[in-house]
Amino acid sequence: MREKKQQDMVEICKALGDLNRLKIMQYLIDGEACACDILPDLDITQPTLSHHMKILSRAGLIDDRKEGKWHFYTINAEVIREFQQFLAQVARSKVGHRKSSRCLGLCCGGAWKAE
Question: Where is the HTH arsR-type domain (predicted)?
């Protein structure tokens, strides 16, 4: 994985590492929403919501469009798909196990030798 792409994944993980930001993402699953619609569902102030939206936006997770003084947000489906593909790769990998001539097969029953 290219270093830029790795850094993108780090930023996404950081952005999703907050309960309020996860709640915002869940709210946006149903489609575009104005910040004024999202705010009542969270126990935070408007400036705090703006802060969270900025973090999600910088990570590429949401798109923002302005209409007058209102901001409307949507999930960036392309970035979500890329993140999902990354997680699928991790899930398919043999995390924590490297082929080694010193491996006794105690942790994996020697499964890697069958490859």
Answer: 1-102
Using CA atoms in the order 65, 79, 27, 29, what is the torsion angle rounded to 10 degrees? 100
DSSP 8-state secondary structure symbol assigned to residue 93: S
Distances (CA, A) of 86 to 28, 29, 82, 106: 22, 20, 6, 29
Q: Evaluate whether 52 touches 24 at the Cβ level (below 8 Å).
A: yes
> Helix, strand or coil for residue 4?
helix
Polymer length of the chain? 115
Q: What is the C-alpha end-to-end distance of the chain, expressed in Å?
A: 23
Domain spans, the chain: 1-92
Q: pTM value? A: 0.77
pLDDT tens per residue, range 29-87 = 999 999 999 999 999 999 999 999 999 999 999 999 999 999 999 999 999 999 999 99
